[in-house]
Structure formats: structure tokens, C-alpha cells
């Protein structure tokens, strides 16, 4: 493929324009128009007729895209590369996920002490249609029982089950209302702590997705007999975490209101009075706490350390829980963000800590003395991402390190105390032969206020001269860090001769909690400025041109590219906006929107409504503007971000645009916001890439040549 002059996919007949209401509300003194309010209701006959017409229009536009077939073929090859999850060791058994070429979903397997492995949970065996996903899993301390959660049709409404690891016999479940429920086992495998929502009839109408509680459950018992542990009378939007010590003595419960970057933490001595006592309550910080095998209370926290630190205290002495009394093991490191830790044993048996730090979104690994005396060694890791570190809870001289980069599928490396400065392969994911040879360039744009913004720019080795059709991807929210990762979509674009750029925007965690907060609430505009600066930088440095630049984002990233569409329609030729938030005045009324008001602000507050109206894409559509080509992709079973956002902005843009570039709404049924089958991933990505290719001028030169190998 190579570039050719083009500004958009070939125009198709105009889609059916949506009727506009003369609806204007006065909200805290703001006159707010909402002409497509009726599109919020999927059961409204007008909505059904309009979406049916949009479906037909989408099929017509997408099926005619010349590169769609070649992208689909290339994507099928690239997703044949598998993925391996980090093992979780329990006694003599190791539990992990693995997806091999040809599998629609990863399976959960167990490796026995003799090295044999067998499958415990296979989503395709549960549902041959591929609509069931494995959401979470947790083995008991002895490795004899497994709690796992599955959901169907993309709704993410997890059902909890428990099985016997040796026999595969189902011992418990399904227990419903377990969406986002952690599990913490007590020794013996007979009881576990978990989180469950109250029954719908016990909560106010419209609040069925909230009102979680922590319970103690006995395996096989009726959930109605569960013991209420925590949550009564607290914020109904709270998400809870639970952790136990391997000896069963200590229970840690945490709570955060929605996605707020702060949490409350309580600790209970279950061998004592069992009372949950506050370790951190009402503090604007996040602290993860657990009692490890050495009997100490470990604290991974950004309290007084926005880039993170690791410390210890005495669980039996509440006086030691105050931050000024902590013993710091891994201090805050300038220019780096602490992202993960694991306890290991040195060759001489001394307790040590494996610590992961991110520098400009690339991970480093190091070894620290557990007594707080400092760093022992740096561990050589290829430039890329460490997905996590794991070690046996009872101790040992080995740990597992999850690793990926732009050309390496998720794999597992092994750290050994005998060679503490290096890693060796534990289990590499199968790699398809079509993975292109890529070159990754790191560069920095300068945002509107002078802040440097880091970018990864991925291109095929030996690709033709610049400028090239380019896709810019971003997220910029919820403390999410965009680090190097294997992506079939990225590699398919790069293999075709395009350039793929990833921007590390404010709102993420690439530089710690201060970086996150610089892109939330009243500072959200910083994120959009960072993204625009990244696009301008790619043009200025010769990677691409405005006519060859497309942007892609999903969820909060859908808000990002939706705002780019309305604030900077001149910046790009194409926009792919997936599962987006777009009506920021009413986002709290649908899906899980209420849990995000700490990130964005609430329309119920006059000042915060002003922030939201300042950028809300739906409210900044201007008639007569030449908007770029836009493809909205939505998922009808999405219970996080309601598809109404995309419906409303699609209708507004189709009405307003003065260009011939299409505005397309692509809907999918029986799939939601999260995990999906591989084949559905291919179909979605092929449509997205072909749309971007048509708009940015990436065209097929030799349609009969095989995918790059």
C-alpha cells in the first residue's frame, strides 16, 4: 500500500437525517440546546427507524471501502499470534491464561507439580457462539478451588462460580450481581470474601448498578445467608477491594467512590475481634495495603508521593499506620512512576522486592532490599511494557514478569535470584509469521501551555519516504497509561505502509498522579490541547500531513477524538470514535456515568457544568463546518457507555457538516464495552482501518500480494 491523494472515502448517498427538536433548557443560567434528546431512547419508534437507516448506510459505506478485504486478511494473520498471562502460584499449582492461534478466547489453565497443564475454564466450551467472556478468576490459597466470573453478550454482569480444581466439579454458582467483584479466600477454601450489589428491589430506581457490599460467603451456601461485612451506609457508588493474608488472620477492605483517585482503607484482625479499623479514611490519596508472609503490613501508596512509593508498618500497631511512621522500602523516584511490586527471596534467602518503574511510558525493573536499605540491582529488560510481576506468596527465588512491546505478543519472562540482573523466557506467546519488522521512534510534542507530551511513533522498517498516512491514538484519562503493547490493528496499519502514533496525554498515569490530575475536571482541556499538539507535531516533523492524518480513540478516548472533531476539524482527515462519551451534560444519567463525575465534574454543580459545556462535543457542533470523515462504532450491549452518545453526535454532524466526507454510525449487537471474541475484533478493526485508509490516502497498490511476512 502507498499514499495517494484523497480526502475521504467516496461519498455515498446521504444518510437519513434525524428530525430536530426545538428543545432548549436553562441549566444554571446556561441555555443548552438538545435537538436529538429523543435518540436517547432505543425503544422509541423514531430511534428504531433512524438506526435502521443508519445501519443500511453504514453497510453501504463500509462494504465499498477498497482496502477492507486486505486489512481483514492481514488482521486475521496478526491476531493468530497468541497471548500468555502471568502465572498465579498457589501451593504446587500455577494458574494462568493462554490463547493459542485459532482460539476465539483465552482459556484458564492450571499447571500441576509434574508439569502437566489442563484447561479449567474455556469460554468457548461454555458458549459456542463466543459471546461469553471470562471476566476474573482467583484460586484459593491451597490451589484446590477456583472462583471465576463470566458474563454473556457483552453486558459485563459477572456471574460468580466456584469449581474443584482437581475434578473440575462445579461447587457453587452462579451467583449474580458480581460485576467488578474481587475475591479473597480464607485458608481451607471453604469461605471467601467478595463484593455483590444489592438486589434491584432494595435500591432506588435507576441505581441498580450501584450499592455494593462486602460479604463473607461459604462455598455452596445460599448467597442470601452471606454475612454482611462492610458497605452499609457508605457512598452508593463505592467500588470495594478485599484482600486476606495467607494465614487468614488479616483482612483489608478498600473503597473508592466511583473512579475517584482516592480510597479509604480498613484493616481487621480476624484472629482478634474482627473489627475493621480505619487505616486511611478521608484522605486524598490511593493506598493499596496487604499483610505479606513476613507478617508486615505493606503499603503501596501515592500519599505524599504522587509517583508512588512502597513502605511497611506493623498491622498489629495502629500507631504505625500513620505515614510519618512508615518504613520506606522503595522511595519515590524522580522521573519514574512505581507501577508494581513483588516480594522475592535473594540467593541467600534475604527478603527483597522486585519493583517496576515507568519512565516516559517504558518500564524498568529493579531489585530492592526489603529492610529499606535501598536498591540492590537493576534488571535488564527490553524496551517495552511489564504487564505485572508475580511471585509465590509463600516465598521463593523465582518470579514471573509479564512482557509485551509493539511487536511482541503478551509473554512471560522469569526472574531468578541466581542471576538477579537478567530475565529469561518462561513462556513466549506464539507469533504469527505476518508480524512486520517495525521501528519505534520516541519524540515529544509541545502542548499549548509548554508542557512536553511524549509520543511513540511506529513505522515499518524500510517504509517509503515520509510523509505517510498516519493514525494518532490517545486516551488521556482515568489514570490509564499507554505503554508499548502488541496490537494487531497497529501492526496491520504499519505493515500496509502507514505510521501509527501513540500520545501519552495528561489525564493518564505516565508521570504519576499529578499528571493524571492535570487532565481531569477543570483541567480537562489540557488533554485535548496535548492531543492537538501531538497531531501538529507529526505534521511539522514531516511524518504526515493534515490530509493524511486520522485519529482513533475509544471510551474516554472516544471523548478525546470527538472533542478533536468539534474543536479542530481542520487537524485531521478522519476520525474513528468508538464507544464514546459525547454528551457531557447528561452523561451521568446513563450507564456507569455517575461513577465518573470525579474525573469530569457534575452537571448538577453550576461551576462544573461550565467546565463540561466548555468542551462537550455534542454541544459544539456548528452548522456549515467542513467536518472530517467520522466513523462511530458502538456496541448495543454496552452497559458502561450508552450508545446514545454516538447516536446524538452522529445525527448532529450529519445535519451540520458542509463537506462530502461521510459520517457513519456502525452498530454491533450482543457485544459490550469490554472483551470480545477474536473474530469480532477482526471485523471491527478491518472496518476502522479501511475507513481511515480511504480518508487518509492509504491505498492498495498490489491487491494480490500476500500479507507482509
UniProtKB/TrEMBL annotation:
Ranges of residues in domain Peptidase S9 prolyl oligopeptidase catalytic: 486-696
InterPro entries referenced in this protein's UniProt entry, alphabetically: AB_hydrolase_fold, Pept_S9_AS, Pept_S9A_N, Peptidase_S9_cat, Peptidase_S9A, Prolyl_oligopep/macrocyclase
Pfam family, one: Peptidase_S9_N
Catalytic reaction annotation: Hydrolysis of Pro-|-Xaa >> Ala-|-Xaa in oligopeptides
Protein name: prolyl oligopeptidase
Record EC number: 3.4.21.26
Alphabetic keyword roster: Hydrolase, Protease, Serine protease
Protein family: Belongs to the peptidase S9A family.
Record domain Peptidase S9A N-terminal: where: 23-423
EC primary class: hydrolase
Magnesium listed as a keyword: no
PANTHER family assigned: PROLYL ENDOPEPTIDASE
Entry-linked SUPFAM superfamilies: alpha/beta-Hydrolases (SSF53474), Peptidase/esterase 'gauge' domain (SSF50993)
Signal peptide feature range: none
Domain of life according to the entry: Bacteria
Amino acid at each position: 500500500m502507498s499514499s495517494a491523494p484523497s480526502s475521504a472515502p467516496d461519498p455515498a448517498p446521504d444518510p437519513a437525517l434525524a428530525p430536530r427538536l426545538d428543545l432548549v433548557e436553562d441549566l444554571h443560567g446556561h441555555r443548552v440546546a438538545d435537538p436529538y434528546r429523543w435518540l436517547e431512547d432505543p425503544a422509541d419508534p423514531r430511534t428504531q427507524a433512524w438506526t435502521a437507516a443508519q445501519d443500511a448506510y453504514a453497510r453501504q459505506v463500509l462494504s465499498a471501502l477498497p482496502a477492507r478485504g486486505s486489512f481483514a486478511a492481514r488482521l486475521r494473520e496478526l491476531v493468530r499470534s497468541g497471548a500468555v498471562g502471568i502465572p498465579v502460584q498457589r501451593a504446587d499449582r500455577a494458574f494462568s491464561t493462554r490463547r493459542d492461534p485459532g482460539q476465539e478466547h483465552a482459556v484458564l489453565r492450571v499447571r500441576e507439580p509434574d508439569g502437566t497443564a489442563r484447561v479449567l475454564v474455556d469460554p468457548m466450551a461454555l458458549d459456542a457462539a463466543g459471546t461469553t467472556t471470562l471476566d476474573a478468576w482467583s484460586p484459593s490459597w491451597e490451589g484446590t478451588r477456583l472462583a471465576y466470573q463470566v458474563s454473556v453478550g457483552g453486558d459485563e454482569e459477572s456471574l460468580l462460580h466456584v469449581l474443584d480444581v482437581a475434578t473440575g466439579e462445579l461447587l457453587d454458582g452462579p451467583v449474580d450481581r458480581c460485576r467488578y467483584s474481587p475475591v479473597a479466600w480464607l485458608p481451607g477454601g471453604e469461605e471467601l470474601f467478595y463484593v455483590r450489589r444489592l438486589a434491584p428491589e432494595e435500591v432506588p430506581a435507576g441505581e441498580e448498578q450501584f450499592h455494593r457490599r462486602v460479604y463473607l460467603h461459604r462455598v455452596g451456601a445460599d448467597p442470601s445467608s452471606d454475612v454482611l461485612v462492610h458497605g452499609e451506609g457508605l457512598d452508593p457508588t463505592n467500588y470495594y477491594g478485599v484482600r486476606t493474608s495467607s494465614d487468614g488472620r488479616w483482612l483489608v477492605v478498600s473503597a473508592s467512590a466511583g473512579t475517584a483517585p482516592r480510597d479509604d482503607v480498613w484493616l481487621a484482625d480476624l484472629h482478634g475481634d474482627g473489627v475493621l479499623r480505619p487505616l486511611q479514611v478521608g484522605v486524598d490519596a490511593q493506598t493499596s495495603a496487604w499483610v505479606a508472609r513476613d507478617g508486615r503490613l505493606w503499603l503501596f501508596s501515592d500519599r505524599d508521593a504522587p509517583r508512588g512509593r512502597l513502605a511497611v508498618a506493623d498491622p498489629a500497631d495502629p500507631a504505625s499506620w500513620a505515614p510519618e511512621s512508615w518504613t520506606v522500602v522503595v522511595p519515590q523516584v524522580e522521573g519514574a512512576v512505581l507501577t508494581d511490586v513483588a516480594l522475592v527471596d535473594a540467593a541467600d534467602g534475604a527478603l527483597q522486592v522486585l519493583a517496576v518503574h515507568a519512565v516516559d511510558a517504558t518500564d524498568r525493573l529493579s531489585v530492592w532490599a526489603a529492610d529499606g536499605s535501598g536498591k540492590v540491582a537493576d534488571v535488564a529488560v527490553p524496551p517495552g511494557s511489564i504487564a505485572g510481576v508475580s511471585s509465590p506468596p509463600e516465598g521463593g527465588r523465582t518470579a514471573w514478569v509479564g512482557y509485551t512491546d509493539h511487536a511482541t505478543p503478551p509473554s512471560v519472562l522469569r526472574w531468578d535470584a541466581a542471576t538477579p540482573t537478567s530475565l529469561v523466557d518462561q513462556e513466549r506467546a506464539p507469533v504469527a509469521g505476518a508480524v512486520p519488522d517495525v521501528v519505534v521512534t520516541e519524540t515529544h510534542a509541545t502542548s499549548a501551555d509548554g508542557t512536553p507530551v511524549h509520543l511513540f511513533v511506529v513505522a515499518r522498517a524500510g517504509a517509503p519516504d515520509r510523509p505517510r498516512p498516519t493514525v494518532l491514538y490517545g486516551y488521556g484519562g482515568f489514570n490509564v497509561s499507554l505503554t508499548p503493547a502488541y496490537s494487531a490493528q497497529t501492526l496491520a496499519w504499519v505493515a500496509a505502509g502507514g505510521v501509527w502514533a501513540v500520545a501519552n496525554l495528561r489525564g493518564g498515569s505516565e508521570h504519576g498522579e499529578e499528571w493524571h490530575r492535570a487532565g481531569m475536571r477543570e483541567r480537562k482541556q489540557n488533554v485535548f490541547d496535548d492531543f492537538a499538539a501531538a497531531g501538529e507535531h507529526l505534521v511539522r516533523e514531516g511524518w504526515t500531513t493534515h490530509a493524511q492524518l486520522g485519529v482513533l480513540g475509544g471510551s474516554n478516548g472516544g471523548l478525546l477524538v470527538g472533542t478533536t472533531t468539534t474543536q479542530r476539524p481542520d487537524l485531521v482527515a478522519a476520525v474513528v470514535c468508538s464507544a464514546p462519551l459525547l454528551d457531557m451534560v447528561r452523561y451521568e444519567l446513563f450507564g456507569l456515568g455517575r461513577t465518573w463525575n470525579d474525573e469530569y465534574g457534575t452537571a448538577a454543580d453550576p461551576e462544573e457544568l461550565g467546565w463540561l459545556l466548555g468542551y462537550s462535543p455534542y454541544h459544539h457542533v456548528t452548522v456549515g463546518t467542513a467536518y472530517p470523515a467520522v466513523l462511530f462504532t458502538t456496541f448495543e450491549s454496552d452497559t458502561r457507555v450508552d450508545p446514545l452518545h454516538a447516536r446524538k453526535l452522529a445525527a448532529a454532524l450529519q445535519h451540520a457538516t458542509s463537506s462530502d466526507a461521510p459520517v457513519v454510525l456502525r452498530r454491533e449487537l450482543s457485544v459490550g464495552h469490554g472483551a470480545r471474541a477474536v473474530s469480532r475484533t477482526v471485523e471491527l478493526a478491518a472496518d476502522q482501518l479501511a475507513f481511515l485508509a480511504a480518508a487518509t490516502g492509504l491505498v492498495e497498490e498490489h491487491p494480490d500480494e500476500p500479507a507482509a511476512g
